[in-house]
Amino acid sequence: MDRPRAVDVQSFINDHPFSPFQWFIFAMCFVIVLLDGFDTAAIGFIAPSLPGEWGVSRSALAPVLSAALFGLACGALASGPLSDRLGRRTMLLGSVLVFGVTCLVSAFSTSIGELTWLRFVTGVGLGAAMPNAVTMMGEFCPDRNRATVINLMFCGFPLGAACGGFLAAWMIPHFGWRSVLVLGGATPLVLAVPLFLRMPESARYMVANHRPAAHIRAALARISPDAAHAQVFTMSEHVPQTPGKGLGVVLSPMYFVGSVMLWVAYFMGLVIFYASINWMPLLLKDSGLTASSATLISALFPLGGVGAVLSGMLMDRFNANRIIAACYALTALSVWLIGQAAGNVALLVLVVFAAGVLMNTAQSSMPALAAAFYPTQGRGTGVAWMLGIGRFGGIAGSFLVAELTRRHFTFAGIFATVAVAGLLAGAALLVKQAARPKPQAGAPAAAKTESFGH
């Protein structure tokens, strides 16, 4: 009697060309990340309309502006363990529905307090969507170009934020501020239809969690019909295994140091990002530039995400920790140079753009790094917790500059202080590289192989 044909899931994905089905998964995840960028930025575009609508002061807008940031952190932290228990598909669909429904409902808010709570829940959905999109895409990618594809997917975030600005500038004068939230809520609900009908569960997740072989076969057959006759599926992990799943993996002795270093690096990166985008226009204006020049120069910083795809290609070929650490170190240098360029507009334009390219390249590369670091049983939690804990860096960055201005730091002193965060992020990744988990004595380098079949 012939033995059942066994198929290693990742080897199968590696051995076949990137299929139209995988491009469909990429398109779905790209649009989710784009909508994340749009909905995260939406409140900033509609905020100027709220004082006139409800008769509130500008200071009263602080809670509604920060509510989504806290929701993003909470959503990411909660969704990771759930993703490793319930599945990537379930969490992805659920999170899209949550932020779609609540964003749509928030368009009909009747008070600033009501809008604040709805923005928080919208943030929870957004915070859960991003890490699950990363994990799902990563588990359907060949090893040879995983970082490139995930970084390309992350280009959707600044694109979504930019589109939100252009659309809001046209929609608010014609249809009012509520129309932006209607668009931001209705689009995810439309997206949920093909997600529900066409998006499968991750094949790696199904093998790791002993799902029926027929379901695994059906998912892989959409990549190539070669999977149609397979009866047994195996999964080789290229990182060391540890008992448990979810947080049990992320906080295990084998992965703990690396997990903390990922958190530190992403946190410090967002300290720089939010300190810059929230305060740079005001700081440049105070340094002597006109308001319009300060705004235009500051706008170059978030536009600088063009290096993410190149970084992904380098990560797929060389040591990813060192590639991103170098980007953070160069970010620190360029942010410091912003402080030295006051009064020289041409130099200021150059260094702000360079800082934006380096900063966004490093930050956009971190999810791919986290996805490659953890085994399947802890990948969802690992990616989500890095993104969730990192969100507090965004809050810290805004408060840091506020405190520095209160203490009357100079323009150069503020940017020199913010630049230190880039050095800390780079150092954290070098520590992660040095403390990378190693197989236990007697275990093979590719750790254990999970298998399932009839």
From TrEMBL:
InterPro entries: MFS, MFS_dom, MFS_trans_sf, Sugar_transporter_CS. GO terms for cellular component: plasma membrane. The chain crosses the membrane at residues 21-47, 59-78, 90-111, 117-137, 149-171, 177-197, 255-277, 289-310, 345-362, 383-402, 408-431. Keywords: Membrane, Transmembrane, Transmembrane helix. Its main location: membrane. Residues 25-434 form the Major facilitator superfamily (MFS) profile domain. One of its GO terms (molecular function) is carboxylic acid transmembrane transporter activity. This is MFS transporter, AAHS family, 4-hydroxybenzoate transporter.
